[in-house]
Design brief:
The structure holds two protein chains of two kinds. By secondary structure, chain A is of the alpha/beta class. Chain A contains 17 helices and eleven strands. In chain A, helix 1 (2-19) runs parallel beside helix 11 and helix 16 (346-352) runs antiparallel to helix 17. By secondary structure, chain B is an alpha+beta fold. Chain B has two helices and five strands. Chain B has helices spanning 55-69, 73-76; strands at 5-13, 16-21, 24-29, 41-45, 48-53. Chain B has a five-stranded antiparallel beta sheet, covered by helices on one side. Classes of the chains: A alpha/beta, B alpha+beta. Chain A binds chain B through residues 1, 29-31, 35, 38-39, 56-59, 84-86, 111-115, 133-135, 137-138, 140-141, 144, 187, 189-190, 192-193, 214-217, 244-245, 251, 253-254, 257, 342-344, 377-381, and chain B through 1-4, 29, 31-34, 43, 45-48, 50-51, 53-54, 57, 60-61, 63-64, 67-68, 75-76, 78, 80, 83-87.
């Protein structure tokens, strides 16, 4: 693998040299963020190539008000809340789901929406609420599960809908326009579902190159090379270096399922506010599975921790080291923001791989280089 | 959370299947890839296969995951017998 990556990095350096200015690219996906660190690529990048993180970690972009709604649901004595493990430690205004569980709430960690539905079948006397987070990679699983609940009349099952769509968020970032971006590395496995063609508005309307890449080091460098080449040539196109897995049209079955079960909705993102058409709600036929409706939960406002700059981190406005809490008040063991909680969060990746923590680590008395990082990356359930 | 992992389909029953993920047996849904048959390689995410892929690509992806995650790839990915891949 390395012998293929080396020449590609050399080529990347050469093209960057030709550009002769700083090139700022956004890796949208949290898995890319981590892969860039893990593979050691970050330290091999040319000096004038800067990679910033984007709003592509589902845990990090979930608005605090939705965490609060999940905690409110979990606090009801009859409710069993089922969630992907990544969400357990995300702090809301009144603590986390993990804390709720410690205080007696029934919170179950599941690996699939279907496991949550199984819990509903096994516990017909208890309402089971599934916390539906994730982008287009994950949303079809929720859609298929809702259809199954509808077919089998599992009426004690419902979903707290927090699913989000990647492209509207990228377009919203470009419309705000305060972060200089020369191009995007598009998320590999979201693209399996939506297809490379879904990114055309970014290239056609906003004149930014965008390249779909997988997560292996060779894939990432090929993606960056394709982006910087486009910058050098003044082009803006959608390119796909992950064509072995990602097609132009995506997974039609999954997309049809999303269209059938959900409708686009305006939804709040951490730091980005409400973005029109960037979320998914249950279509009228399936609204009885909507947990917010069923339990008449009023979604409030976000009140993020005053020191937390996660919102600026996931929009490429600041790097984790620019946050005063990073590595001190906020560590993987005792996080105040979601980017330090999630295994794919930018702050957790920076912390784990020692970026920007020199002179900070341990000052809060809770950071440990390897132990904390392993816990952050493991996300074990 | 958007990471999908490669596995090989062992047997199919309607829109359910048993898949082999490096020796771990998983029950998955094939609703999103209805044309899979035993012997196919797929990417699995949140208990669902989301696409077919060539064996060479699958093996390359798994090699990378193993390299990147160390000797505890299955644990890190949240794979448990008859469970599902971590979302």
């Amino acid at each position: 693998m390395r012998d293929r990556v080396g020449p590609l990095v050399d080529e990347l350096r050469e093209v960057c040299r030709q550009v002769a200015r700083r090139v700022q690219l956004m890796e949208v996906c949290g898995t890319h963020t981590v892969a860039v660190f893990r593979s050691g690529l970050r330290s091999m990048l040319p000096e004038n190539l800067r990679l910033v993180s984007g709003p592509g970690c589902p845990v990090c972009v979930t608005a605090q008000r939705h965490i609060d709604a999940a905690i409110e649901l979990a606090s009801r004595s009859d409710v069993m809340l089922a969630t992907y493990g990544d969400m357990m430690r995300v702090p809301g205004r009144l603590g986390s789901l993990e804390r709720q569980r410690a205080q007696g709430a029934t919170v179950r960690v599941v690996n699939s929406a279907r496991t949550a539905l199984d819990l509903a079948r096994e516990n017909p006397d208890r309402p089971v609420v599934f916390l539906g987070v994730g982008f287009e990679t994950t949303a079809p699983a929720t859609a298929a599960t809702v259809l199954e609940a509808d077919r089998d009349k599992i009426e004690n099952f419902s979903v707290l809908m927090c699913h989000k769509l990647v492209v509207p968020a990228m377009l919203a970032l470009l419309k705000v326009g305060d972060v200089p971006l020369d191009g995007f590395l598009a998320p590999g496995h979201v693209s399996v579902i939506i297809g490379a063609a879904a990114y055309r508005p970014i290239a056609d309307e906003h004149r930014r190159p965008i390249v779909v890449a997988g997560f292996e080091p060779e894939q990432i460098v090929r993606g960056l090379l394709s982006l910087v080449r486009q910058v050098a040539e003044g082009r803006a196109a959608v390119e796909n270096v992950y064509a072995a897995v990602v097609t132009d049209d995506g997974n039609r079955v999954a997309l049809d399922l999303l269209d059938r079960v959900f409708v686009p909705a305006d939804t709040p993102w951490r730091a980005l506010g409400v973005i029109p058409g960037s979320g998914l709600e249950l279509a009228p036929k399936y609204q009885r599975f909507d947990a917010l409706r069923r339990f008449e939960i009023e979604v409030g406002e976000d009140e993020d921790h005053p020191q937390c700059r996660c919102g600026e981190v996931i929009t490429g406005r600041v790097e984790p080291a620019e946050c005063p809490a990073f590595g001190q008040r906020c560590t993987p063991i005792d996080p105040i923001g979601p980017c330090m909680v999630s295994s794919e969060g930018t702050c957790a990746a920076w912390y784990k791989y020692g970026q920007g923590v020199e002179g900070r680590r341990g000052q809060g008395g809770k950071g440990r280089r390897s132990g904390a990082g392993e816990q952050a990356a493991g996300g074990r359930r | 959370m958007c990471l999908a992992v490669p596995a090989k389909i062992i047997e199919c029953d309607g829109n359910q299947a048993v898949a082999d993920l490096q020796g771990n047996t998983l029950r998955i849904s094939t609703t999103l890839t209805p044309d899979v048959t035993p012997g196919d390689w797929v990417l699995i995410h949140a208990g669902f296969s989301i696409t077919k892929l060539a064996e060479a690509e699958a093996r390359q992806t798994w090699d990378y995951l193993r390299l990147a995650l160390g000797g505890d790839a299955e644990g890190v990915l949240g794979v448990e017998p008859d469970g599902g891949a971590s979302p």
